[in-house]
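[job 4471] stage=fold_predict status=RUNNING
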Amino acid sequence: MTEPSEQPNTKRREFIGKSLLAAGAALAAPQVLLIVANVRAETQGVSSEVRWGMLVDTNKCVDGCTSCVDACHRENGVDLLQRPTGQQDEMWNAQRPQWIRKVKLRDRQTGRVTNLPVMCQHCEFPPCADVCPTGASFKRADGIVMVDRHTCIGCRYCMMACPYKARSFIHQNVENKMVRAPRGKGCVESCNLCVHRIDAGNATTACQEACAKEGHHAILFGDLKDPQSAISLALKAQGSYQIRADLELNTGVRYTNL
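[job 4471] inference complete, writing structure tokens
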């Protein structure tokens, strides 16, 4: 039988154990809190309190200028795709991906020609997402319409449903690509308003920057839900038009002087 004087001092052990735990927590706490903060920031996701959009002033869009197209393709690695060996110009021009294309509109009454860039219009009610059988075409909470290449099966229903011909299909194997814009044969892709920039905290697109650098300033990008944003103030001051407004898709891309 153990004598009373030889019994282990459980209270003392409990005190030492708690002290060590407290000391360890004090040392680890800053790192633990930092990790928790990072995880919280990375998993926060996008918010429906924001809706990204674009306003194009067609009066400032210059005939023959392709700076917005070129910048978009450089930014997203679209220009890295190579023409298949032996493919004719007509086939290559019909099949090569284009996230933005320049369009000319001619007024039959007056003969006036209007130039404008056309890209994914980032509809509030996107037809591409409605017809996609896998959910690969979807709209984010902040209004950006995207394609999940991991679930895209290449059926191209979205391309048929899009009234703006704003989507491209990758017909050939892709050897060169950017990490921020992965792509592969058999997938559909389109303008995503430079989503990698937005998610990194920036508020400009490559096309807007290129247009401004050329001195045209025809493209304005921003938050449509912020009443004090430059794009919201411009829309209030001069109004805008939607392409195929009759479809009632409430596009995120608007045009003035159309």
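[job 4471] summary: Strands lie at 52-57, 101-106, 113-118, 137-139, 145-147, 168-169, 188-189, 219-223, 253-256.
[job 4471] exit 0
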